[in-house]
Amino acid sequence: MKSFGLDRRKLLGRALALGALGSLSGCDFDHPNHPDLADRFLRAMSDWNDEVQAALFDPRTLAPTFKPSQITRPPRFNAFYDISQAPQVDAATWRLALTGRIGDKRPWRIGQLRAMPRESQITRLICVEGWRVVGQWSGVPLHHFLRKVNADLRARYVSIHCADGYFSSIDMASALHPQTILALDFLGAPLTAPFGAPLRLRIPTKLGFKNPKSIVALGVTNTYPGGYWENQGYNWFSGS
Amino acid sequence: MAKRVPIHPLPLRIMHWLNAIAIVVLIGSGWEIYDASPFLPFTFPQWMTIGQWLGGAIAWHLAAIWLLMLNGLFYLGWGIASGHFRRKFLPLSPRAVLRDTAAALRFRLPHEVGVYNAVQRLLYLGVIALGILAVLSGLAVWKPVQLWWLSDLFGGFFISRVVHFCAMTGIVLFIAVHVLLVALVPRVLPAMITGGRLPEPDGREVRP
Ligand code: HEM
């Protein structure tokens, strides 16, 4: 069961105090085996919102693009740790592991990715917190890559794991969107450690936390993979 | 025995209180969401927000919005179809608003059972408009890519956020005045819960 509150009893208590959820008051929240009704309710609504967003998603709708002069400088670092703790990945020994419903699972080296056709974009990254930055990324369109490795494009999810233990997952329709790229460069130069070297996902149709950095493994699966923040309660689809 | 005619019909009462629940959850969780990235030089104290942390607040916000939207659509449909809006909110003239405001400020505005004065009419129509604005600007903040036309209509992502915040502020001001008015004329409250009873046709007023 995913948890939405650091202290869910307090959270519910507050909602009850505000008279907001009188209908949930019959529950015994102290019993460990007893399902937490507030969590279940929020989970169900979040799942429903995933479905609504999947229905709203139009594969032909492009995220807005911006002029070079609109790029945010200096770029803003953001992670669940300090910039000094960003993982240092040695590009020479780095490999991208492939898992799940993929025909050709041989790991990829960075040079092989750099030899693929690229797409460059100046797009806006909107954080779940509400702020936004404009940046320029370029890299391999994910739909290209998935076709190249003979992935099952009818599978439901693409999952991503990172060097720092972060992980996330996206729906296949969003993975195949033309602006969804495996980014290699940021602001015209190879990605640096704080911004996801050597490879990150750049997906301007989703919120920032759905853009994992320093990717080490990519999988295609029909089993819901969840994510670092998603498992703590952020909405999974989190489309823009 | 004459047929009981409630001051507030049952559907209206149900919708009013469902809406109040949705609004409280939305405002409390909305403040927590604002706090994650404030654009004014203040944040809302933690104790007056709902959701404990950003993820919880977003979950509450995006759950309560369905209650607000569905309930609001029923209310608008019912209000138009039943003639409730026409009968209760119209006519409304600036002159009547000025007259009733002046009377209210001198505490000389009599409360007629089952009739909204011009100040109430203006407030109710105003908060309905603010509710619609809040939903539309909220959709623009939620889906600036898929609903790009709505986002553009508001002037982009950031201005949508500001408009959404302003709509919330207007609704909070409405609630302050609304609850103050109810506190000043407390006998209108039971009728919004039990329905109350309109005066008998023979003129005898029956207290709710
Ligand atoms: C504790 C909170 C609230 C109380 C005690 C309360 C009480 C009342 C009462 C007593 C009336 C009837 C007034 C009369 O008969 O003269 C009323 C009507 C109304 N209230 Fe509230 N209310 C509350 C919250 C809200 C909220 C949060 C909203 C919307 C943001 C709201 C919107 C309305 C509207 C639009 C009407 C007119 C309904 C119609 O006839 O269509 N109320 N309220």
UniProtKB/TrEMBL annotation, chain A:
Residue ranges occupied by any Oxidoreductase molybdopterin-binding domain in the UniProt entry: 85-229
Lineage top rank: taxon: Bacteria
Classification lineage: Bacteria, Pseudomonadati, Pseudomonadota, Alphaproteobacteria, Acetobacterales
Gene3D superfamilies with a match to the protein in the record: Oxidoreductase, molybdopterin-binding domain (3.90.420.10)
InterPro entries, A to Z: OxRdtase_Mopterin-bd_dom, OxRdtase_Mopterin-bd_sf
Protein's recorded name: Molybdopterin-dependent oxidoreductase
Pfam family membership, one: Oxidored_molyb
From TrEMBL, chain B:
One Pfam family it belongs to: Ni_hydr_CYTB
Domain of life (superkingdom): Bacteria
UniProt keywords, alphabetically: Cell membrane, Electron transport, Heme, Iron, Membrane, Metal-binding, Transmembrane, Transmembrane helix, Transport
Presence of the UniProt keyword Iron-sulfur in the record: no
Alphabetized InterPro entries for the sequence: Cyt_b561_bac/Ni-Hgenase, Di-haem_cyt_TM, Hydrogenase_cytochrome, Ni-dep_Hydgase_cyt-B
Intracellular or extracellular location(s): Cell membrane
Membrane topology summary: Multi-pass membrane protein
Coarse class of the protein's main subcellular location: membrane
Occurrences of domain Cytochrome b561 bacterial/Ni-hydrogenase (ranges): 8-195
Transmembrane feature ranges: 12-34, 54-78, 122-142, 162-185
Similarity field: Belongs to the HupC/HyaC/HydC family.
Protein name (database record): Cytochrome b/b6 domain-containing protein
Organism for this UniProt entry: Acidiphilium iwatense
Lineage of the species this protein comes from: Bacteria, Pseudomonadati, Pseudomonadota, Alphaproteobacteria, Acetobacterales
